[in-house]
Write a structure and sequence with these properties.
This protein has about 80 residues and is mostly helical. It has helices at about 15-20, 35-45, 50-65. The protein has a domain at about 30-70. Helix 2 packs across helix 3.
Amino acid sequence: MLNPAGKSYGGRQQLPDNVKQLFRPVVMSRTDIELITEVILYSDGFKDEEILGRKLVTIFNLARELLTAQQHYGW
């Protein structure tokens, strides 16, 4: 096990070269939620998808920040 969990965890170890060859590097980036929302609205037939997408993202961001994490909200 390369990265064991537990009290004696000494940090990560390098993968052996034969295992590295099985994987390729992947770059992660933050998704553009406004663009995704605009595309969904546009594909559903909305004409003002840019304005509506921006407003929807703002509403859900505010809800996530201001509301408590209770199950009855259903977000």
